[in-house]
Design goal:
Blueprint lengths: L16 H6 L14 E7 L5 E7 L1 H4 L4 E6 L23 E2 L5 E7 L2 H10 L1 E6 L6 H6 L10 E9 L2 H7 L2 E9 L11 E6 L5 E5 L4 H12 L6 E5 L12 H16 L3 E4 L2 H7 L6 E9 L5 E13 L5 H10 L9 E10 L13 H19 L3 H8 L19 H11 L2 H6 L2 E2 L4 E2 L24 E5 L5 E5 L8 H13 L6 E3 L12
Parallel strand pairs: 1-12, 10-11, 14-15, 19-20
Antiparallel strand pairs: 1-5, 2-4, 2-6, 3-5, 7-15, 8-13, 9-10, 9-12, 13-14, 16-17, 18-19
Length: 514
């Protein structure tokens, strides 16, 4: 196929726009099914400890109470870890953060379920929590799991000590980045429906149907073909509905199997913010050697990540941060160590960029500091060190094609009128107004630490009347995926877009697409 496309690259009205702007789109909270009841999690109110006893007497007395599910009711494996198998779907004995789910109550109404969950009384043996990376790192006993280290990744290239000897200046700085909440408009939610043939059907506000399918099959001890996952229209995600829906859907599914009725569970905003994954907080120490001409020559970088109570996707985040810790710059000698630590805080997971934004903050901040100390223009300093065709990255990957970093910076400098704008900077005691520069590179997919989870599948059916349906395994969460899939299909088959219908993502329609 050539580059003369009819639809790809063109401005096309989104295929889902009309229904969304008119309110016709039915999100999970708009959906209901016959005989549906409601569930809500009973979660830990302490950050670290052991469950000693559970008292249901006040909860059972509430009008509308149906049942409650605990870890001992799980027919399969009590495990919902995405990569590292360290996270029970229902805490059995230990609780590791405020929000760790201990049980799921089932009631006739949503308000009753929420009230009942708050009335389950749990007695704990409390332990001293680890609430920071430094506290977790310093621990000598009472570990979270086998140890307090979640994962670790390293990069070694060249001879950093020899590089520091050759440097005219050595500059060291420490940076920190905090937790960040996704705050998607639609909270976490799921409807679980037990079918007559033994299948459990799940409608969820989610990003990764196949994560959910595998987790629920494992927890219910079912074959994959008996777990059907359908993505409901999803009102925002930003990574926050990659790992967490496996927990939400598994808990709803357990409740549905328990009472043999459809179960709906939607988190209240307050609890969603408390219990669900966040962007990883980082501590970063950069030691950089540079010549007086402004050439980077050596780097020793320590990255430390707060994983929270469970690993979720920390291994991918830690890996990506290590691989991108010095950005798109040429540096002959470098050593990076990236380590994640468990703490008694909400788990940190997927969030737009998988560790790259934190690493970018680190390498761009140190670049600005070096430029200032050497009296160099920040743009010129970057251009002295930016990767070009034929250069190698910090992981010794030789770039042989499509290296546009230098051109990007030069065009940005021109478009921003950089020199004049820098001269016109204004400042006062409280505010500084001006223009800065930052650049980053970002790899597709999950990288080597997550290759086993990458995939792509599509099914195209051409009907006798010439109409076409397309099933694909990824999801629409606001980014325009339904429209893009229709555009690609139309150009690939040489037909008009009005002949194409893109189906709702359904695990029964296509194979695992990551």
């Amino acid at each position: 196929m050539g580059t003369d496309f009819s639809y790809i690259g063109k401005s096309i009205r989104r295929v889902d726009a009309s229904a969304k702007v008119t309110g016709e789109t039915r999100f999970l909270t708009d959906m209901s099914v016959d005989r549906m009841v409601f569930a809500y999690p009973v979660y830990s109110t302490i950050p670290y400890g052991k469950v000693k006893s559970i008292d249901l007497s006040r909860a059972e007395a509430v009008n509308g109470f149906i049942d409650v599910v605990f870890a001992h009711h799980i027919p399969g494996e009590n495990q919902v870890g995405v990569i590292i198998q360290d996270q029970p779907v229902l805490a059995d004995e230990m609780v590791r953060y405020v929000g760790d789910t201990i049980g799921v109550v089932i009631a006739e109404t949503e308000s009753a379920a929420q009230k009942i969950a708050s009335l389950v009384h749990i007695e704990y043996e409390e332990f001293e929590p680890y609430l920071s990376i430094d506290a977790s790192k310093a621990a000598t006993n009472n570990f979270f799991h086998k140890s307090n280290v979640t994962c670790s990744h390293k990069v070694d290239k060249g001879d950093i000590e020899k590089g520091f000897e050759q440097a005219d200046f050595i500059i060291e700085e420490t940076f920190r980045t905090p937790y960040q909440e996704h705050f998607y408009l639609e909270p976490q939610g799921c409807i679980a429906i037990p079918e007559d043939d033994g299948t459990i059907t799940l409608y969820g506000s989610l990003q990764c149907p196949y994560y959910v399918q595998k987790a629920v099959a494992n927890i219910l001890d079912l074959p994959l073909d008996k777990v059907r996952v359908i993505q409901a229209p999803t009102g925002g995600a930003f990574g926050g509905k990659e790992d967490i829906p496996s927990e939400v859907c598994a808990r709803a599914a357990l409740a549905a199997i328990r009472v043999k009725r459809p179960v709906k569970m939607v988190y209240r905003r307050r609890d969603d913010v408390q219990m669900t994954s966040k962007r990883h907080p980082f501590q970063m120490h950069y030691k950089i050697g540079v010549t007086k001409e402004g050439k980077l020559i050596s780097a020793d970088i320590q990255l430390e990540e707060n994983a929270g109570a469970y690993a979720t996707l920390s291994s991918v985040v830690s890996y990506r941060a290590a691989m991108q810790s010095m950005g798109p710059y040429v540096i002959p000698n470098i050593r990076v160590k990236s380590t994640s630590y468990y703490t008694n805080l909400p788990p940190a997971g997927a969030f737009r960029g998988f560790g790259s934004p934190q690493a970018t903050f680190g390498h761009e901040r140190i670049m600005d500091i070096i430029a200032e100390k050497l009296g160099l223009d920040p743009v010129e300093f970057r251009l002295k060190n930016i990767v070009k065709l034929g250069d190698t990255t910090l992981t010794n990957h030789k770039l042989t094609a499509s290296v546009g970093a230098e051109e990007t910076i030069r065009q940005a400098r021109k478009a921003a009128n950089w020199v004049e704008q820098r001269q016109n900077n204004n400042s006062s005691e409280r505010y500084v107004e001006g223009m800065g520069i930052a650049t980053s590179h970002y790899g597709n997919c999950l990288g080597a630490a997550g290759w086993s989870m990458d995939g792509a599948e599509v099914k195209i059916q051409i009907h006798p009347d010439g109409s076409i349906t397309v099933a694909f395994g990824l999801i629409e969460m606001g980014q325009g995926a339904l429209t893009v899939v229709a555009q690609m299909t139309a150009d690939a088959l040489g037909v008009s877009m009005d002949r194409i219908s893109v189906l709702t993502t359904d695990s029964r329609n296509v194979q695992d697409s990551g």
